[in-house]
Design a protein that fits this description.
With about 200 residues, the chain is of the alpha/beta class. The protein has 6 helices and 8 strands. α3 packs across α4. Bound molecules: zinc ion. Zinc ion (ZN) binds near residues 29, 182, 184, 185 and 191.
Amino acid sequence: MSHFIDQETMRAEEVIEKFRSSGALLEGHFILSSGLHSPLYLQCAIALEATTIAAAFGLAIADEFRGDRIETVASPAIGGIVIGYEVARQLGVRFIWTEREEGRMTLRRGFQVHEGERVLVVEDVITTGGSTRETIATLTGAGAQVVAAASIIDRSGGKADVGVRRFSLATLDVPAVETTACELCRQGQPAIKPGSRKQ
Ligand SMILES: [Zn+2]
């Protein structure tokens, strides 16, 4: 596809192909969870419905971190949970998640980290890096050492900075812009928020 960054590996192309073949890659005019508008939307939950795909993505991410003595994988709910669990399972380590409580990312459900615990943060898609940064801050605040962050897709074109080493299976360079800068809005095309109840 045209949004695809050419220098990526064959594996990245396979990742995108799995999204496309499972109907998880939409083209049109979309409102992302970050609030930004984009002509492309990745519905990760649809790709991850196929447990074989989730396992394949999880393995590819896990392989990248086998030498890092990861003790725990942590993901922001809900989007990161399926892939985070798969990565943790394949690394043979425990899995926890963070979630929002009154807007703030928190560790709930009795989840704890110990001082210096080596944590890998895993998300489905990184767009601005916001939820990964919040998850890292929550874990660090609880005493953990966040070693790295990973995602299936990086749709920041590699630009998102989360303050730790970062890895993605595939990197996309697609416009994600504020409403005021959106060409599709200017053309009067209605924007939709995929997966929202209003559809
Ligand atoms: Zn728009």
